[in-house]
Amino acid sequence: MSAALEVVAGVLRNPQGQVLLAQRRPGGDLAGLWEFPGGKREADESAGSALVRELREELGVSARECSPLIRVSW
């Protein structure tokens, strides 16, 4: 069995209640589909730090605050 892979995803909502979704890149897994933004957590960072980093790297979004919503294991 391989080691567990931890990923984070964010539900970002603006003051008008709109939710930010990201479209997956062409040519990759599930290309063109929509997802909540996020990515893989590095071994030395918390889930919150990983989400802030991923939002900055992938979307150029600067997150001010985040809090856990749900944790799922499978």
The major beta sheet can be summarized as: 2 strands, antiparallel
Poorly predicted sequence stretches spanning 5 or more consecutive residues? none
What structural class is derived from the secondary structure elements? Answer: alpha+beta
What is the CATH topology assignment?
A: Nucleoside Triphosphate Pyrophosphohydrolase
List SSEs in N-to-C order.
EEEEH
Count of folded domains: 1
Tell me how many strands there are.
4
Strand sequence of the main sheet, in spatial order? 1-4
Report the mean per-residue pLDDT as an integer: 90
> In CATH, what is the homologous superfamily?
Nucleoside Triphosphate Pyrophosphohydrolase
Distance between the termini: 13 Å
CATH class: Alpha Beta
User: What would you report as the Rg, rounded to the nearest angstrom?
Assistant: 13 Å
Note the total helix count: 1
How would you describe the shape?
globular
Enzyme class: hydrolase
Catalytic activity: 8-oxo-dGTP + H2O = 8-oxo-dGMP + diphosphate + H(+)
Cofactor: Mg(2+)
Family: Belongs to the Nudix hydrolase family.
